[in-house]
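Re: [ENG-882] Designed sequences occasionally contain unexpected residues at chain ends

Forwarding the minimal case from QA. Structure tokens:
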């Protein structure tokens, strides 16, 4: 018996629905750990965790300049974190409390330059 166009369409629709469901489940599985790891002010373990989870995404990944080992004053780093500067996003009090920023800025200011710092635009 030949499959009617209607039946073929139904099969196709089911197939598409199943695929979409699978993609949705996959995306959900990928996003959940990221959301579970998302932190807010008052939830950070320490400055290193703040740096690794936020700043290193750009600074240290070749998107923006390396910050460590440059003798940047902690006050300056703190102002940039809270207010942003050009391409640098500002972080809200719900992201980092003032105490979080003070700890993070002090950590960055006193950190040595990494072994092979990446420059902006450098991909290895
Ligand atoms: C989305 C990418 C991105 C993230 C995330 C990010 N920055 Fe930046 N940051 C930039 C860019 C781009 C600049 C350069 C801005 C400009 O001058 O145009 C910058 C500049 C800076 C500067 C000034 C550097 C200088 O040479 O004077 C400081 C300090 C800084 N960021 C600190 C931080 C800290 C601390 C964090 C984490 C809380 C952070 N940034 C997260 C993109 C980012």
């Amino acid at each position: 018996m030949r499959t009617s166009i209607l039946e073929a369409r139904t099969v196709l629709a089911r197939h598409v629905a199943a695929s979409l469901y699978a993609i949705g489940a996959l995306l959900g599985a990928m996003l959940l750990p990221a959301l579970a790891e998302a932190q807010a002010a008052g939830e950070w373990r320490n400055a290193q965790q703040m740096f690794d989870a936020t700043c290193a995404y750009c600074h240290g990944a070749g998107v923006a300049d390396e910050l460590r080992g440059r003798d940047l004053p902690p006050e300056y780093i703190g102002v940039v974190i809270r207010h942003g500067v050009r391409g640098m996003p500002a972080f809200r009090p719900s992201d980092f409390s003032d105490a979080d920023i003070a700890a993070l800025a002090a950590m960055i200011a006193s950190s040595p330059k990494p072994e092979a710092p990446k420059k902006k635009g450098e991909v290895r």
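QA comment: On inspection the terminal residues look reasonable. The pocket of heme C is lined by residues 54-55, 57-59, 63-65, 67, 72, 77, 80-81, 85-89, 91, 104, 108 (CB under 6 Å). Proposing we downgrade this to a documentation issue.
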